[in-house]
């Protein structure tokens, strides 16, 4: 019996102005406990894979247990099929432990994609795929690099895409339905899916000052990332783009300085490219972001929307409970309940094998 665990952190993307660029891996972990029983000759399970699940959305059953429908196993199958393996090895059991809240802007889907790519590599024995190549596979599915970059590489990262040839662009823009295997009921045509072009995405690691903690205030409703991207404009006024460029040049420097400079961080976390448009999906967001600053709230460095929301991320050095309570009370006025957590920067995705295996 072969067993191993894949551990992937959640993430907070953007951190204000770094829309689709900056990501921070944080300390809530998706875990896959994988067992492969190679003594079996055949399997009754679809695609030779049994999925069990515990964690967020367990009662509502919103995470499918069919390997042809579950995001993690579909992504693993994509990697396998690019390498002429049509199914999981006989017989694979994937137990998913997922404490990352779904659809809240903490990168649950990014973590699922990264864990899925790693699962494909491990069960397929595809040891030649290094993390940079796995990043390419992730980008064929999650088409912005910030949250998957953080979940794969860990820490505080800047991510960017290479210029691609027109032929490669066409390959990257292929509809998701042609990349991922068809959900339950779809026929396996036996065709090889399109492989990612080489070196689509890259990352650079930034320093994170040890004093800074991330307070996540998580409202009790979901905003699907796809919906939060639909509300964004196709074009922006030049002054808004310049505003973000000025801030993004400051942000990694400001968050790496020890001791942190609250006024600089507050300034560096302002955004004009996505947060104001997402207000219509997240009642109270505008007021929260505009009303809280280091001068009005001791210990606070800055506040932003986490990923596509609705979670609010407050960066702070002290008074975490008071900061969280102030944001929670604003959401309460909208009849929205929240939970809150203090999170730390996290390591990237790891495969953990039992000793002497
Ligand atoms: N552990 C998981 N296993 C399978 N599917 C998952 C998992 N985590 C997230 N997903 C899928 O991703 C969706 C949420 O993605 P998205 O809207 O991008 O929000 P988020 O901001 O949490 O990434 C879930 O509704 C579910 O379909
Ligand atoms: N840059 C993306 C990040 C989405 O992250 P998620 O964690 O909400 O999936 C965006 O802002 O749309």
Can you describe this structure in just a few lines?
This protein has 357 residues and is α+β, with helices and mostly antiparallel strands. 32% of the residues lie in helices and 22% in strands.
Characterise the protein shown here.
Keywords: Kinase, Transferase. This is Homoserine kinase. It comes from Hypoxylon rubiginosum. With 357 residues, this protein is of the alpha+beta class. It folds into 2 domains: 2-203 and 345-352, 2-Layer Sandwich (Ribosomal Protein S5, domain 2), CATH 3.30.230.10; 208-343, GHMP kinase, C-terminal domain (Alpha-Beta Plaits, 2-Layer Sandwich), CATH 3.30.70. It is built from 12 helices and 11 strands. Strands 1, 2, 3, 4, 5, 6 and 11 form a 7-stranded mixed β-sheet that branches. A 4-stranded antiparallel β-sheet has the order 8-9-7-10. Residues 13-14, 19-20, 105-107, 109-110, 144, 146-147, 225, 228-229, 274, 307-308 line the site of ligand LJ64HWYM.
